[in-house]
Write a structure and sequence with these properties.
The chain is of the alpha/beta class. It has one domain (about 1-25, about 80-210): P-loop containing nucleotide triphosphate hydrolases (Rossmann fold, 3-Layer(aba) Sandwich). The protein has 9 helices and 8 strands. The protein has helices at about 15-25, 30-40, 45-55, 60-70, 90-100, 115-120, 160-175, 175-185, 195-210; strands at about 1-5, 30, 80-85, 105-110, 125, 130-135, 155, 190. The model has no long low-confidence stretch (mean pLDDT about 95). It binds BIS(adenosine)-5'-pentaphosphate. BIS(adenosine)-5'-pentaphosphate binds near residues 12 and 64.
């Protein structure tokens, strides 16, 4: 099955992608994680992407499309995959079509901007392995330390409040039109994000079958 997770920054795409991946046994492709890893290692891709990411702007379409094209050609994607954070523009959605990719379901996670601002202010990420935590909803066992690799937890640069507002503006202007694109194809399903992660997951898994 080929699935897209759409939604504003902080709507819970990464969280739900993990759940679906465990449920269906297919990999998650997070363009945000791919780009952050490229920034961390200082690769040419990371050097190109860093400034846009730090400011909450989208990385140019052709850069991200190249990342996805290479990734979905890998062996572990043969049975399907979950795209988390791609496509984010209509041009990116059209590029997927041009690659001959047939998407089975697009899950659009709907969460109010104010809820998102509250959620992202509590997120912490590991500077070593990139694992994601939350001060209220998913706290690490030891304060400020990653459960998985023992490195320090930090605030993601684009989670600073002013940058979160910029990311929300970019989402409303550039990504929301992607919903209409997939609605016209009959594959879009909208899910209201719930306060508890597991309540959202139950709705997401149901929407995959509907
Ligand atoms: P990316 O990493 O994709 O960031 P994003 O879309 O802004 O998404 P987030 O990771 O912030 O949120 P999420 O929806 O995954 O939510 P999460 O599950 O973490 O992209 C980063 C940047 O890369 C972009 O700004 C852009 O520059 C670039 N980029 C990436 N893809 C691109 C593309 N296709 N084109 C161009 N540029 C691209 O949840 C958020 C937090 O809330 C967590 O801490 C979670 O624990 C907590 N939480 C609390 N309650 C709940 C609940 N009920 N449900 C879910 N989570 C909850």
């Amino acid at each position: 099955m080929k699935i897209i997770l759409l939604g504003a920054p902080g709507a819970g795409k990464g969280t739900q992608a993990e759940v679906i991946s465990g449920h269906l046994g297919i990999p998650t492709i997070s363009t945000g994680n791919c780009l952050r890893e490229a920034v961390r290692t200082g690769s040419p891709l990371g050097i190109k992407a860093k400034e846009d990411m730090d400011r909450g702007r989208l990385v140019p379409d052709e850069v991200v499309i190249g990342v996805v094209k290479d990734r979905i050609a890998m062996d572990d994607c043969k049975k399907g995959y979950i795209l988390d954070g791609f496509p984010r523009t209509v041009a990116q959605a059209q590029a997927l079509d041009a690659m001959g990719v047939e998407i089975d379901r697009v899950i659009d996670l709907e969460v109010a901007d104010e809820t998102i601002k509250r959620r992202l202010s509590g997120r912490r990420v590991c500077e070593g392995c990139g694992a994601s935590y939350h001060l209220d909803y998913k706290a690490p066992k030891r304060e400020g330390i990653c459960d998985l690799c023992g490195k320090a937890l930090v605030i993601r640069k684009d989670d600073e409040p002013a940058t979160v507002q910029d990311r929300l503006n970019v989402y409303h202007q550039q990504t929301e039109p992607v919903k209409a694109y997939y609605s016209a194809k009959g594959v879009l399903r909208q899910v209201e994000g719930q306060e508890k992660v597991e309540d959202t997951s139950a709705l997401v898994l149901k929407a995959l079958e509907a």
